[in-house]
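#struct-pred

JT: dropping the chains for the assembly here, can someone run the whole complex?
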Amino acid sequence: MTEIYKTDALIAQDIDAYLDTHQHKTMLRFITCGSVDDGKSTLIGRLLYDSKMIFEDQLATLEADSKRVGTQGDAIDFALLVDGLAAEREQGITIDVAYRFFSTEKRKFIVADTPGHEQYTRNMVTGASTADLAVILIDARKGVLTQTRRHSYLAHLLGIRHLVLAVNKMDLVGYDRAVFDRIVAEYRAFAESIGIVDFTPIPISGLAGDNITTRSNQTPWFEGPVLLEHLEVVELDQSANQRNAFRMPVQWVNRPNLDFRGFSGTIAAGQIHAGDEIRVLPSGKTSRISRIVAHGGDLDMAVAGQAITLCFEDEIDCSRGQVITAANAPVEVADQFEASVIWMDEEELVPGRAYWLKIGPQTVSATVAQPKYQVNVNTMEHLAAKTLDLNAIGVANITTDRDIPFTAYAESRDLGGFILIDKMTNRTVGAGLIHFALRRAQNIHWQATDTSRTHHASLKNQKPMVLWMTGLSGSGKSTIANLVERKLARMNRHTFLLDGDNVRHGLNKDLGFTDADRVENIRRVGEVAKLMTDAGLIVITAFISPFRSEREMVRAMMQPGEFMEIFIDTPLEEAEARDVKGLYAKARAGQLKNFTGIDSPYEPPEAPQIRIDTTQTTPEQAADLIIAALIP
Amino acid sequence: MSSHTLTHLQRLEAEAIHIMREVVTQADAPVMLYSVGKDSAVMLHLAKKAFYPSPPPFPLLHVDTTWKFRDMYALRDRAARAAGMQLLVHQNPDAQRQGINPFDHGGLHTDMWKTEGLKQALDLHGFDAAFGGARRDEEKSRAKERIFSFRTASHRWDPKNQRPELWRTYNARKNKGESMRVFPLSNWTELDIWQYIHLENIEIVPLYYAAERPTVIRDGLMLMVDDDRFPLKGETPVMRSIRFRTLGCYPLTGAVESRAQTLPQIIQEMLLTTTSERQGRAIDHDQAASMEKKKQEGYF
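RK: done, full complex below.
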């Protein structure tokens, strides 16, 4: 009955013919999603088993394991084949993305096996990001569940165009057509509501093997393709993508000697031929392709998905992160976007904080604004949100520190999908899908003024500077800042003191003390301080500014050499003992939330220009030390 | 416009090249681990393609146990020279001093020569990214391995603390002392490797092809007596037509009886056999989750 795997005879008789077939196979990547007990691992185990990807020794282990920890009595528990890590075996659940391989005579398949638990949205998004197709598993006895909706939404969000609705455990509902039809109708109503235009429903049983590799006698009423048949013929995204305009992000400049300069990358879309006219973005410079270089001889043409090296006829600038496009169909360039953001880290998103944004080979510094809304992935409702925590998905504006070439994610995963990286821990904390560029950035131009910052400073006969004092509440920042300003005034220096408490009465009166508000507080103070240095002033600031990232953000805003980080180092016990404003007592009594040092962290500077140990130094001495550093 | 659908091997090749180019631009000191096996041979071939006409911009590192087959040492030196790459060979001096060997020391042999030796070599040269030829289809715990696998400053692999990998956007940023192991062949299967070797005409160690070789059978493994360090316990080596499906230290690597003398014959045999590749290696037989445990300790 099964034609699909009838390869053994061919292998034995004519290995060359077999190899020729295998060599011309295409590849489909798909993801399986389902809830904990929907039989996902069993289905994958069955596909591997039926495609002979399980060897005798593995089978022996499987049989032994099935008896020991299996859930199928003495029968083989296929799920054990794919539940890999020891920790998972103990918990009896899959906790990460695993990749499996099998092949038929037509295709090689890579399956991303992702867990069904709610807290693991992150893994499903990871698996979906490289998939052409998603198999959504439903337990025929349970119908469309919350998880079904969530998985379908995520698959659709990540741009998977082919969906299979596998209604599993048909054996447990007597292969009843009415049950199948009802589930399909219910799913169709939901799918249409979120913009899924098409899906392929199939009634299966992973355990009994119905309609997986072979057509089942139990479902004579079903006329559609069986699962594997469908997987073998579905059109590949990669083929469709070759018909789009040419795009290739540059990964590496290949420069073995002075006579050769090539640009290496993986083609994201379209095709390229020797002689084609191209454009490099963001610069917009144009040239023609002189050579498509490959090991073993130049190529006449190359297509989406190939990793190649291009040479230009003209010597135009081009480097890693720039994008080579068809000359007449360039991509957009912008520094502000609206994007869907999926948060993947235990530590929540801090709006306004600078993260690394990596899009293709390019890495830039970027900030995420407070989300416009968060999506409830179970009901698709839009909820108000101040931040995004682990596994949350929202829509927010993103600002990068320079122009980047891009396309909407819907058009290209390579040019519209990005990851966010925490600058301190280097963890990948989020993923984003670009919707569109915000026009604002392009329309507000920088207004050039005639009196330059150098002029302002020279009028005052001083070098502008920010003296940034950081330390716990009650450490003595304000006292020392005030002394420094008085002494500088006596020396005829033009100064201005920005004090944390005072700024919160006006400029920042709308901000509270959550992490996100603290970041915004510091960002605004940084911008004000920057304007003041442009005016030629010496700015003294006294803010707790507890996070390293934000202090680094302010440093980056200033001209090089115009930012001095001063750590007013007072141990917590000492500051708490002084408790000048009675705040520690309140915080300890639970009347003040998010108080630095008590229930909100303080990250001390790692290499401040000046460190003042207030247990050893008087405020007078501290002020003198600072001034000595400022005016040598 | 015509369509040129890429075959699965073309896609796997492009993916591996993409990964290698990401590593050389993101890492400060990359290195390619080269074990002289068939996977290493494919990896080296892909590296030549990825950077052509430049030579691959990193050295090869062989973490040597001194117990490899003689044929492997010969090919190793020749392949590195042909690629125009520097070859670094590291032998753990502690293991050497203590005379650690696979006959007397069991698991300690792998631990000292390979796991410890690798860590020493990476620290010694300050490498922060090391390419390895591991594949996800080899073993269950590998199926969940990232392509860019993050290691702590003490080289430990924490399965719970790996970075999500989306699209082909890889995050190789790390703090000082931390490193990455990178597996460009993650999505290849054993069949893909063989087919690619066949198509691209890649030179591999002759031990993969069947020939008459001196053997003894011990603990269920058919071992080849490759040199006179092999302590015979009253056994007389028997000449058999054998070949190897996987190559490691010769006293730990089981051979199979075979007449396959060409690549298509090898592939044919592989497809018709019913035991998995790693079964020929003594290392995996210890316990069910042994590979995962070894990885946490820093084994590649």
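JT: nice. Strands of chain B lie at 30-33, 60-63, 87-90, 129-131, 148-151, 179-182, 211-218, 221-224, 238-243, 256-257. Confidence is low (pLDDT under 50) at residues 282-290 of chain B.
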